[in-house]
Design goal:
The protein is of the alpha+beta class and 130 residues long. The protein contains 2 helices and 8 strands, in the order E-E-H-E-E-E-E-E-E-H. The model has no long low-confidence stretch (mean pLDDT 95).
């Protein structure tokens, strides 16, 4: 399953936004309001839970400063990655877009597509408010 957020403008330079998003503690600031739990597990890993969804643990799997970050699930049962692409858009502005890549069976994909689409849209929207 492939999903993508809209591209959003952020009032941070490309480097500032990259630094912000490579610090896992900052993901709590862009989580949806339906967040029920957020916990930093290590320097590059955090766990979160949204209402009605199981807990998910994400780890920064790849970084390419200042334009690319890959967050990957640490669970074999819920195998996916979330790529963040950051482009320069001016002296103190950047644009960010999120891409979800998941491997799910057809039934699971039908169940999670809507909530996941909303989730990455909310992450992108909240990032634009930084």
């Amino acid at each position: 399953m492939e999903l993508e957020s809209d591209k959003v403008k952020v009032n941070k330079s490309q480097e500032e936004l990259f630094n912000f998003l490579t610090n896992v503690e900052n993901y709590e600031k862009i989580m949806p309001e339906s967040k029920e739990k957020f916990e930093v597990k290590s320097q590059d890993t955090f766990a979160f839970a949204l209402k009605g969804m199981p807990e998910i643990e994400l780890q920064i799997k790849e970084k390419r400063a200042p334009e690319f970050i890959v967050l990957g699930s640490t669970s074999d049962k819920f195998n996916f990655s979330l790529d963040v692409v950051i482009e320069e858009a001016g002296p103190d502005q950047s644009e960010a877009q999120m891409f979800f890549h998941g491997k799910f069976n057809t039934m699971m994909a039908m169940m999670v597509k809507g909530p996941l689409k909303k989730f990455i849209a909310t992450l992108a929207e909240n990032t634009s408010k930084l």
